[in-house]
Amino acid sequence: MNAIKLYTKELHLHYGEAHVLKGIDIEVPEHCVTALIGPSGCGKSTFLKTLNRMNDAVANVKITGEVMLDGEDIYAKNVDVTALRKKVGMVFQAPNPFPMSIYDNIAYGPRIHGEKKRIVLDEIVEQSLRDAAIWDEVKDRLKKPALGLSGGQQQRLCIARSLATKPELLLMDEPTSALDPISTSKIEELIDELRKSYSIVIVTHNMQQAARISDYTAFFLLGDLVELGTTGDIFSNPKDRRTEDYITGRFG
Amino acid sequence: MNNPPLSRITGKRRRPSEFLLYGLIYLLAACLAVLVLLLVGYILVRGLPAITVPFLTTAENPILETVGIFPSIVNTLYIVFFALIICVPLGVGGAVYLSEYAKNKKLVGAIQFASETLAGIPSILYGIFGYVFFCVLLNLHVSLIAGVLTLTIMVLPIMMRTTQEALRAVPKAYREGALGLGATKWYLIRTILIPSSLKGILTGVILSVGRMVSESAALLLVAGGSAMYMPRGSVWEQLSHSGSTLSVELYRYAMSRGDNGTAFGIASVLIVIVALLNLLTRFVAWRLNKK
Ligand SMILES: Nc1ncnc2c1ncn2[C@@H]1O[C@H](COP(=O)(O)OP(=O)(O)OP(=O)(O)O)[C@@H](O)[C@H]1O
Ligand SMILES: [Mg+2]
Predict the structure, then answer these.
(1) Which of B174, B180, B196 has its CB closest to that of A85?
(2) What is the Å distance from ligand 2's center to A201 Cα?
């Protein structure tokens, strides 16, 4: 088993009165893809957002427990959230390119973190777009608005944008749910490629996708982590009855 | 098999109520356009004869009995320019603070309420306040600078309002995307929120300019009611003198002298200035957007 990149202990999250995460203990191994599955509303997105503190801005949110990334507690007082989010990148469910050029979209992250040199930025932009398998489609229109791309291209652009800050852990919230089968398989191939250099946590509603691309699978239900195991075990030999019911489509 | 008849999607007549509604809307739009054209046309037709080179380039001379509005043109531009310089950053900053930083919902509500109320009160009240506060209390006397400050508080609510609306319209996904990459709030504001709100801010500027250029009552009180001298001295010296703007002059010529020809001449100049200022604002926004 690979080294542990991130783990949580007794992670609870409340939105006001609602108890959304009820004591999650999970381990995310390095250079692996960990898939989060579970019915709608069970807290997958919420959990993902606690891993790079995107929930901080929500009013009335209360988070307790530990989230340890490479041995550091990301909720400690002296954490630099900017540095944390450089290290932990995020791709959202709906593609959300900024209203600027393709180039500026990709350079956005590096610029936040202080990169100003044109040659360096050029290099990062090209490399990120190549890594996200979209370079050939956009290399002649880098100065054109990113909003002019198709949905599938936009999502790969957003992945490239996350890669540009050179994260170590990549969080993806249903990155293919809005895409056609061809774009989806491109992104799946991409994820397969990315696992060599990144650790990935991906939320998906697509069981086949989870089975295809992930090494580990975690099943969430109503704010609990019901079961975590290798994807092979979860899909062929689940320990918990509820996991089996969900995977075989008996509910959710 | 006994299939039901196919329903047809062509050849249907428009519903009469819809027809009526469209007709009404077009009629109203046409009325509005005609009204504007008539108004502008009438003013220009009556005003253009008064517009001569001396009219535009000299000051009024009571001895020679010549009419000139150059000082008022300069006063108007000064007041608009300096009031914008103060109220755009203040208004945009205030709006950014209220919608992005302020945590206390009650305070935000109170400020919102106050600024809406301020936007609705008659301008003469600003005039009285400005006179007592700026001219007397702060000892600025009746001067252009007092006019600038009075107009600033008058249009500040407009600037804040329009900017806030624009900020609210920026998609949440942009914020998430930027914050997710590690952007600080300020970076997000600078690189995404303000650029995306530029159109709204611009609307605020245009509305503000309109309100300032058309103001007469308040300015008569705080900035003075005549412009006899050609501008001279430094900018600061000019700002500390009293002077009337074009709207004030318009009022003066039309009301106290019954000189309608000159009044329409001034009105024509005003229309041209407002049109030019709007164009300029648009140009600035276009340039900013391109960058
Ligand atoms: N900002 C918020 N304020 C209050 N409640 C929230 C907020 N965000 C999410 N919730 C609630 O938390 C619960 C978990 O939501 P979450 O988005 O994490 O579910 P999910 O597992 O990602 O669902 P889906 O598969 O549909 O995306 C839901 O009941 C939701 O209504
Ligand atoms: Mg979700």
Answers:
(1) B180
(2) 13
ipTM > 0.90, yes or no? no
Question: A192 is in which domain, residue-wise?
Answer: 4-96+168-247
Note the pLDDT tens digit of each residue in A97-128: 999 999 999 999 999 998 899 999 999 999 99
Chain A positions touching B184 (Cβ under 8 A) are 82, 112
Q: Please report which confidence band the pLDDT of residue B54 belongs to, taking 50, 70 and 90 as the band edges.
A: confident
Nearest CA to ligand 1 atom 8: A46
CATH number, residue A190: 3.40.50.300
Task: Band the pLDDT of B51: cuts 50, 70, 90.
Answer: confident
Mean pLDDT along residues B23-45:
93
Contact flag A165-B191 (C-beta cutoff 8 Å): no
Q: Does the pLDDT value for residue B3 go beyond 90?
A: no
User: B11 at the A interface (CB within 8 A)?
Assistant: no
Tell me the per-residue pLDDT of B206-225, one tens digit each, with 9 for 90 and over: 889 988 988 888 888 777 77
- In tens, the pLDDT along A29-66 reads 999 999 999 999 899 999 999 999 998 888 889 999 99
C-beta A41 within 6 A of ligand 1: yes
Contacts of A158 in chain B (CB under 8 A): 177
* pLDDT tens-digit readout, A201-215: 999 998 889 999 999
> Where along chain B do its domains lie?
64-224+240-290
- Residue A226 included in any domain: yes
B148 C-beta neighbours (distance < 10 Å), count:
27
- Looking at the structure of chain A, the number of domains it has is 1
The B residues from 26 to 45 touching A (CB cutoff 8 Å) are none
Per the domain annotation, does A151 fall within a domain?
A: no
Higher pLDDT among residues B175 and B236, named by residue: B175
Ligand 2 centroid to A181 CA: how many Å? Answer: 20
A209 is a domain residue: yes
Query: Which atom of ligand 1 approaches the CA of A15 most closely?
Result: 4
Whether B170 contacts chain A with CB within 8 A: no
Report the CATH architecture of B64-224+240-290: Orthogonal Bundle (1.10)
- A9 assigned to some structural domain: yes
Whole-number average pLDDT of chain A: 90
